[in-house]
Give the backbone structure.
Amino acid sequence: MSQQATQLSQIVEAVRAFEKQWKPQGNRSTFFGSMDIWYYLAINDNDTCTACLMLNQGVYMGIDLRKLFPFLEVINDDQILPRVHPNCRCTMLRITDPRDYITLMEPTPTCPEGQHWSDAQGGCVAIPKSIPEVKIQ
């Protein structure tokens, strides 16, 4: 079984468990519970850092978010900004249904080692050797 198929299977199981236990509670949402599932989405262009590229398209449980992304910012019930580093442009989207994940998992073309796909460039581009130093004032 491929890694994506295994990951999708785990997501489907988690969503089914969520649906079994979920009870409507008005507008109250949780973000960091064991039943909250989040999809990491990086902006895929020449300015994207290696750290964000490595996290791109990852699926994370809410219970792990505070440890993995200590500077995260909740935007609304379905979106979190992970704030991996200053000027991070990535976002995390809530997965409430396995079909959401399937829609998000558009195949990305495979690039040679040391390169990543850039939607902006419409092709493979070199991954920077190091992350530029950011000075915070």
